[in-house]
Design a protein that fits this description.
single chain; 256 residues; alpha/beta; Ribosomal Protein L25, Chain P; Alpha/beta knot; six-stranded parallel sheet; 12 strands
Length: 256
């Protein structure tokens, strides 16, 4: 696959054999990359397909290109993994989004958990969500993803999350108390039982983990508590451990 700059282009900007880039992408192509007509880039369609495109026209706010060749590629994780992340402090959520995107997460759900120190200001929520969408888009381009992960609207509490989970084949939550027991539920064992195409929801607590009430509720709703190794992981590390484990099982070992 050519080592070209990659851009995710909205479906409405694909016109027959032509692709149109605007806003930040146009600025990046014209001002940052200083590209010229006849230069090549890779454009990703929202359906996951990608094409090598040749630039035909550049202005500061509009770049046009024509499709030269459709690529036969896929860099998506065979398991559809959604990370429900208990809201952590400072910029840790941005770290989870960026690195989780690089490791193949299909979607993220920010969760206001009992022990979340951060409380979202709903007046500023859309601004924060726009920032998050930009982060996963740029991380998807950098890691040559075929699709940009979806960032779902934040949920207010574990109960709301537990009430809205019917679309998943497997529901897990990383529970630090599970790491302290001898009869623990191994994450590796559960990963080995997954099949390509499965939809998996993994819930990660914030700093301080889940409250007893949250853990009890998740178990009642058929979420399985799992141990992510023998050590207690930071909240921003747990999701990455889970995604890397799944990637190794299905993409390096070649399990189906």
């Amino acid at each position: 696959m050519p080592d070209l700059q990659r851009y995710f282009v909205p479906a409405e900007n694909w016109k027959d054999n032509q692709v149109i880039m605007t806003d930040d992408d146009a600025h990046h192509i014209s001002r940052v990359m200083r590209s010229k007509p006849e230069d090549e880039i890779i454009c990703n369609h929202p359906d996951g397909k990608a094409a090598i495109c040749q630039i035909t026209d550049i202005t500061s706010d509009n770049v046009r290109a024509v499709i030269s060749e459709w690529l036969d590629e896929s860099a998506e994780l065979p398991i559809d993994v959604t990370i429900a992340q208990g809201l952590p402090k400072s910029d840790k959520m941005e770290f989870v989004l960026k690195k989780g995107t690089e490791l193949g997460a299909a979607a993220f759900i920010p969760v206001q958990a009992d022990r979340s120190v951060v409380v979202w200001d709903h007046k500023k929520m859309e601004k924060k969500m726009n920032r998050y969408r930009k982060i996963v888009k740029e991380a998807s381009e950098q890691s040559h993803r075929n699709k940009i992960p979806l960032i779902q609207q934040p949920v207010n509490g574990i109960k709301q999350l537990a009430d809205e989970n019917s679309q998943y084949d497997l529901k897990l939550f990383a529970y630090e108390e599970e790491a302290k027991t001898e009869s623990f539920q191994s994450f590796g064992t559960l990963v080995s039982k997954m099949n390509s195409g499965d939809r998996v929801l993994i819930v990660i607590g914030p700093e301080g983990g889940f409250s007893e009430q949250e853990a009890a509720l998740l178990k009642q709703r058929e979420f399985m508590p799992v141990r992510l190794g023998p050590r207690i992981l930071r909240t921003e590390t747990a999701a990455l451990y889970a995604l890397a484990s799944i990637s190794y099982q299905f993409e390096e070992l070649g399990c189906k």
